[in-house]
Amino acid sequence: MDKIIIKTEEQISGVRASAQLAGNTLKYISEYVKEGVSTLYLNDKIEEYIRDNGATPAPLNYNGFPKACCISLNNVICHGIPSDKEIIKEGDILNIDVTTILNGYYGDTSTMFTIGECTDQAFDLVENTEHALYLGIEQVRPGNYFGNIGFTIGRFAKSKRYSVVYEFCGHGVGLKFHEEPQVEHSAPRNSGEIMRPGMIFTIEPMINIGKAKAIIDKEDGWTARTVDNMLSAQFEHTILVTDSGYEILSDVGEYEIFK
């Protein structure tokens, strides 16, 4: 197993700039997320914005992934492939996941959007999943165990009678798209590696209303859906362990996710 990379100050600055671009890409695209547009339209706007800012979209052609970002609607947990046949409609919830490569450094973030009059169940899922992300982030500090991120997220999700997807996890990021460590979103207390200053990784809980298990689309080999067709939600940030706690590298301030 590869070691967890402790980034230098120069590398941290590079990852921060890329993560800020990824965050600003989500802020940019938020005004275009509305009823009647296709997920391919959003993908193309995202790719254009990333390239106009001197970067490239990391997902494009990554292990054969065909688009510049992942867009996952309703019962899609993650890795949804944008399509001109997929039209956003009233009541949908969707995740947009953006990873940028800027000057060789990777930044990764995702957020949810809700469209019009969603059910109370859908709104609650989105709000609680975002809260779960920040509960996990609050566990980031030197000397703490990575498992306490997942322990805290899992305990909260269980208290709301949700399930936590276990087949996908957060990951180290920065010099590569995916690095060590794996960041589980449901884990035993005080398990895993110890956090140290200079580590950079994503926390990206995927929370389901129904069962935790995912099924992968056999035709495209990417799209992961809930096994029971119940709703799923996800939020993600790129996090740096600092000397005293954490910095959310992909945080660019608030923007409207409830449409």
Please, could you describe this protein's structure?
This protein is α+β, with helices and mostly antiparallel strands. The protein has a single domain (9-248), classed as Creatine Amidinohydrolase. 25% of the residues lie in helices and 24% in strands. Strands 1, 2, 4 and 5 form a 4-stranded antiparallel beta sheet that branches. A 3-stranded antiparallel beta sheet has the order 3-12-11, with no helix packed on it. Strands 6-10-13 form a 3-stranded antiparallel beta sheet, covered by helices on one side. α3 runs antiparallel to α4 (147-159). The longest helix has 21 residues, at 9-29. The protein is globular. The N and C termini lie far apart (43 Å).
Please provide a brief summary of the model.
With 259 residues, this protein is α+β, with helices and mostly antiparallel strands. The protein has four helices and 15 strands.
